[in-house]
Design goal:
Layout (H helix, E strand, L loop, with lengths): L8 H9 L7 E6 L3 E6 L5 E5 L1
Antiparallel strand pairs: 1-2, 2-3
Length: about 50
């Protein structure tokens, strides 16, 4: 599994719009059509379609 990075301000807005707390998620991959996230504590992976 890759190590995630802290989200930028714009990425935090997208995570919050999806209904999640941006402080608990790392950004693993940011693609033009989707963003791959990993939970900071549990390691759960999710994808947000953009």
């Amino acid at each position: 599994m890759k190590n995630g990075k802290r989200p930028t301000r714009r990425q935090k807005q997208l995570i919050k719009a999806a209904g999640w707390n941006p402080d608990n998620w790392f950004v693993v991959k940011h693609l033009p059509r989707e963003m791959h996230l990993t939970h900071r504590y549990t390691g759960t992976a999710k994808v947000i379609p953009l």
